[in-house]
Amino acid sequence: MRYSRCRQLFGEENFARLQQARILILGVGGVGSYALDCLYRTGITQITIVDHDTYEITNQNRQIGSEALGASKVHTLAERYPGITPIEAQMDMAWVERFDFTPYDLILDAADTTRVKIELAKKHYKKLIMSLGSAKRTDPTQIQTASIWKSQGDALARKIRNELKRARFDRNFTVVFSPETVKGDNKGSFVGVTGAFGLTLCSTAVDQLLKR
């Protein structure tokens, strides 16, 4: 049976709860695609994914599905993971304003746009798990989860905290981050870290679902 090992680990009642969960993943690149794979293999298949990009050859060092050069990321992944819902959309401020987030138990934010991440936090912090910077790092053992206010050593986290403070926002939400010193000023990335960020998003989501 496909999920027999998951059933043994979590127990029948908890596994049934996981299968009922509805998850939204924003961004299915180097982090989000691994979060998707992890959730799906765990038996969580009521998943909606949102992205507007197509695969480029530079994605092939870190993104699941990136063999399909030129193809839509969300539609390629929907073929790979039957039953998930693909939404091909540009995630900007207007999209966040009009999209209905209410059906989802958790939102996994692996999007790239800082303003969108901040707006998501303001509106949907209660069910948000946010991925912070994973590029230019090589050590997955430094990945941590914490409240946004307790994250450290990450420039993106610092910027988000500052913007939230300006908006007088003081609520908690969970972030996945690494305090590892970044290497260089470029777009370098390593799947050992970006993939581990995605797996950490997944495990954090599972933990939160089972605690509810």
Structural class designation: alpha/beta
Number of helices: 8
CATH topological fold name = Rossmann fold
Q: Could you list the spans in which at least 5 consecutive residues all have pLDDT below 50?
A: none
Outline the biggest β-sheet.
7 strands, mixed
- Briefly, what CATH class? Alpha Beta
Task: Give the % helix.
Answer: 25-40%
Query: What's the N-to-C terminus distance?
Result: 27 Å
Number of strands: 7
Q: From the 3D coordinates, which CATH architecture would you assign?
A: 3-Layer(aba) Sandwich
Widest sheet, order of strands: 3-2-1-4-5-7-6
- The percentage of residues in β strands lies in 5-15%
Instruction: Please tell me how large the radius of gyration is.
Output: 16 Å
Count the domains: 1
Order of helices and strands: HHEHEHEHEHEEHEH
The CATH H-level superfamily is NAD(P)-binding Rossmann-like Domain
Q: Judging from the principal axes of the Cα atoms, what is the shape?
A: globular
The average pLDDT value, as a whole number, equals 96
